[in-house]
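Justification of resources, computational component.

The compute hours requested in this renewal are based largely on the per-chain cost of generating structure records like the one below. Each record pairs the submitted sequence with a full structure-token output. That output is archived, and it is also reused by downstream analysis tasks.
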Amino acid sequence: MQEKNTTIITEFLLLGFQVNQGLRIFLFCLFFVTYFLIIYGNLLIITLVSTSKNLHTPMYFFISQLSISDILLTTNIVPNMLHILLTNEGTITFIGCITQFYFFCGSEAAECLLLTVMSYDRYVAICNPLHYTAIMTVRHCVTLSAFCWISGFSLNLIESISTAKLNFCDSNTIDHVFCDLVPLLELSCSDTFIVDLEIYLLSIPTLIIPSTIIIMSYTYIILTVLKISSSTGRHKAFSTCSSHLTVVSIFYWTMFSVYVVPTKGQTFTTSKILSLLYTVFTPMANPFLYSLGNKDIKKAIQEIIYKGVIWKNIHNIP
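The structure output for this chain reads:
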């Protein structure tokens, strides 16, 4: 009788932000502009790193990989979120929800690993500068980048398949802006012990180990920088990793706030805002954090503008 009365869920209803029309229009404009800035800023970083010879270094190569991850992450979430804000509700198929969840987890895991590799790059550059070029070769950088992408999406495939096998038989309403793990598990009428176990096991290679490596890397970096006698040398060494450290701090603070800190007493609105911090606003901030005050990036932009002006003048010659 229980199996006969069970209704198989074929689609979910994403509530998004349940606010009045005026605020929804404001949020739509805000996220539309934010999404434009994310795409424009990160594509600019990718273009500059690809075309400027001065940026053909391991650090900027990994920054461009981070930009690709940010574009993938936000494109997976923001367009559908904009649709929800326009219609005040949005339906998504079961397959579409699991697919969105998979690409969200995969790009987030890849970004965690890329930030870890970037901290390792800064560690080698500051703590072992004489062997930097011998260690961080082109082949080694490409291998590390490929490892981040393959590991991120392969590990989370297990979690996505397990989530897809759960039964959803009561409500199909997700009080969130996208298909995230916590609201999906709350809707499931199956035993989620296996999925919860997989989450803790997968967090070791995708969250715990990367954060440990980052902490260790910056501990050695700080100890090395403090040994530098001149204040100019210390400032120069710190400036090469300050942007990365800022991005890491924002990213991991919001991640731990949503997934590690107990959510009891945390409202749905708070959870949505925290989720938007690392899925929308951090990808928007990344290009600006890495470009503002960065002499190499500014020089590359000036070169492109200069070449564009010269090319325009050449075509205007009678």
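The mean pLDDT is 84. The longest strand covers residues 11-14.
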